[in-house]
Amino acid sequence: MSSEYSAISTPPQIVAANMAAAKGKTELSLLRMILLGIFAGMFIAGGASASSLAMHAISNVGLARLVAGAIFPVGLMMIVLVGGELFTGDCLMIMGCVHGKFSAAKMIKVLIVVYLANLAGSVLFAELVNLSGQYNYTNGLLGAFTIKVALGKVNLSFGAALASGILCNIFVCMAVLMAMAAKDISGKIWAIFFPILAFVVSGYEHCVANMYYIPAGIFAASNDAYVTSGINNALFSAEQLANLNWVNFVVKNLVPVTIGNILGGMVFVGLPLYLIHAQKLKADEAK
Question: pTM (2 decimals)?
Fold first, then answer.
């Protein structure tokens, strides 16, 4: 086989590598796990913040999402290349769990700690952006747009948020797996870019990104100038603002989107992919 093709990981090798990495996650100290989770939350929030700024004054929805989709992937790129534990990607741990590399209890512990750490990192980043004065851009239109985005997310029906969460994590988990297949930095960047671009353009729901978007909207809504700008530009009404609060953030968005993300990563990607390659994996281990 030529060196060109020998450098490419096969699908069974990608699954095996992911399971080995997942086992390493279960062996992390609590402090390292928390810090890596905070990093990931901040990195995803950074991509979300930058993409909102880039799209906030573009009226054409398709073009706005394309611009946002070209910027948002930087968050996952930083996680993969520098380090971080992202809840949605960690849903792929189901493969290692089913294969017997670690217990379900260890997997659940990782997912809970990483989820809460992602939340802490995302909300911290949202508050820092708020304090930075960035939402003043375009005479407060960015602040108003930030409120509009958050309102759209807390007004989703449970079913829509669930289905959107499933679809989102299919793309995110594929990006993670494709990045593992790449052997160099440029390959990893391109492997991440296109699936994440697709999910952002499609408008699917990512629980960790929403840990930035909705708190950012809540913080922005405390500024009368942003609220006035949003009402004057017909982005939302004063009555609609009552729906933007911490309870609705959790109940109407985080809960269904998180369930959807878990189903997307575990049931729609992780388990089928493992079942496809389980026989090959076991045969390789028996050699």
Answer: 0.95
Instruction: Please state which CATH number belongs to domain 9-280.
Output: 1.20.1080.10
Which backbone phi and psi does 272 adopt, to 5 degrees? -60, -40
CA separation for the pair 198, 209 (Å, rounded):
15
* Calpha distance 91→96 (Å, rounded): 10
Once rounded to an integer, what is the mean pLDDT over residues 196-211? 98
The structure tokens listed for 168 are 């989102």
Could you state, in order of their start, the residue ranges of all structural domains in the chain?
Answer: 9-280
Q: What residues contact residue 250 under an 8 Å CB cut-off, 6+ apart?
A: none
Q: How far is CA 256 from CA 23, 71, 240, 261, in A?
A: 28, 26, 21, 9
Q: Per residue in 90-127, pLDDT tens?
A: 999 999 999 999 999 999 999 999 999 999 999 999 99
Max distance between CA atoms of the chain, in angstroms, equals: 69
Which parts of 27-86 fold into alpha helices (H)?
A: 30-55, 61-71, 74-82
Q: State residue 5 phi and psi, 5-degree precision.
A: -90, -25
As a whole number of angstroms, the distance between CA 266 and CA 270 comes to: 5
- pLDDT at residue number 8: 55
Q: What is the pLDDT of residues 45-66, one digit of tens each?
A: 999 999 999 999 999 999 999 9
